[in-house]
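Please review this pair:
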Amino acid sequence: MRRRLQIRGVGYIKLWRALLDSPIWPELVKGDRVGVFVTLLLAANWKDQQEFVNGKVITVPRGSFLSSQREIAEYLNVPRQRIRSTIDLLEIDPGNGPFLTQKSTHGQTLFTICNYELYQSDESEARPGLHPDFHPGSHPASNPTLYNKIKEDKEGNQKSKTTPSKAKKKPPKKENKQAIEVLQAYHSSYQRRFGKKPYIDWKGKDRAIAVKLIENEDAEEIKALAAKYPLLDDDFCAEQGHPFALFPSKINKIRAGVVFRRNTIGSTLRDDGTY
């Protein structure tokens, strides 16, 4: 028997105004995905729940829920593609963690709202105002350097007091070189497929993403995957223009060997990321 998405009709959720300053908010609005976003928040358990799934009783923790993209699409009566593109967007890690994660368990998908406790607990009523750099997956408490002292003025307006941040340590020269090679592999493949150069922030965000990836992964493998990324046949990536910022969220899909498109000049991409 197929499951149906269940949202219990009691209680409420908190929706922080600082969402308006999130880098993903314009994309949610532009793609008419706000309704999906709010539904995911509403669907999350407000407390641990025991559920009977495929003959077993499992505990679904607070901030999570069991469902599937198909069930959510049917519940909202919207195309499944809109659910998929919204979840892809919410899984992006802009540096402080994604808003949402999903994983398969007991034949279902477990959706988890990251940092649910920080924003939905009763204690969060007293939390200080959020910095403009806030995004759904982060919280001021996670950045003690920036948010050193926080207080409220007598009129009730919330202010944050910041201390000068220490200079960031530059990555080793080897990591810098490998990161540039990853970006170059992406650049070359993108240009071959689309016949134009991609926008790359060589010294800023994109290089930082590449450095972070090679810190935890084999640099040569990341380079090869970056070369395959522009060829990925993915609707959401195509809609966004295959920006490098989406690459980390697509690595597993590329590794799984999903459908790839041939580049525009017809040459074949080898496993090592070269033509």
Confidence is low (pLDDT under 50) at residues 124-163, 263-267. The chain has ten helices and seven strands. The radius of gyration is 21 Å.
